[in-house]
């Protein structure tokens, strides 16, 4: 049996930034996405983080 599971929410949160920046290995990415598929809390956090990163990116560009 290959159960791709077992990341805890705390681990997923650590990896979310990297996921959004496309900095994860394919393996980690699959693990995180598998968790997100089954965990609404983490999906919400991903959305919040995505928005935050976008805002930071815009602010950074404006400064540059
Ligand atoms: Zn979770």
Helix-strand makeup class: mainly alpha
Number of strand segments:
0
Heteromolecules bound: zinc ion
| Named CATH topology | Arc Repressor Mutant, subunit A
**Main sheet overview:** none
Helix content: over 70%
Percentage of β-strand residues: under 5%
The CATH class name reads Mainly Alpha
Rounded to an integer in angstroms, the radius of gyration calculated over CA atoms is: 13 Å
Query: What best-fitting shape do the alpha-carbon axes yield?
Result: globular
Question: How far apart are the termini?
Answer: 51 Å
Q: SSE order in H/E notation?
A: HHH
Mean pLDDT: 87
The low-confidence runs, each spanning 5 or more residues with pLDDT under 50, are none
| Overall tally of structural domains | 1
How many helices? The count is: 3
CATH architecture annotation name? Orthogonal Bundle
What can be said about this structure in brief?
This protein is mainly alpha-helical and 64 residues long.
3D architecture notes:
The chain is mostly helical and 64 residues long. It contains 3 helices and no strands. It has a single domain, classed as Arc Repressor Mutant, subunit A (Orthogonal Bundle). Helix 2 packs across helix 3. The termini are far apart.
């Amino acid at each position: 049996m290959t159960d791709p599971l077992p990341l805890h929410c705390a681990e997923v949160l650590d990896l979310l930034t990297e996921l959004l920046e496309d900095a994860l290995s394919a393996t980690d990415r699959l693990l995180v996405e598998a968790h997100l598929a089954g965990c609404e809390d983490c999906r919400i956090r991903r959305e919040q983080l995505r928005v935050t990163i976008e805002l930071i990116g815009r602010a950074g560009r404006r400064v540059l």
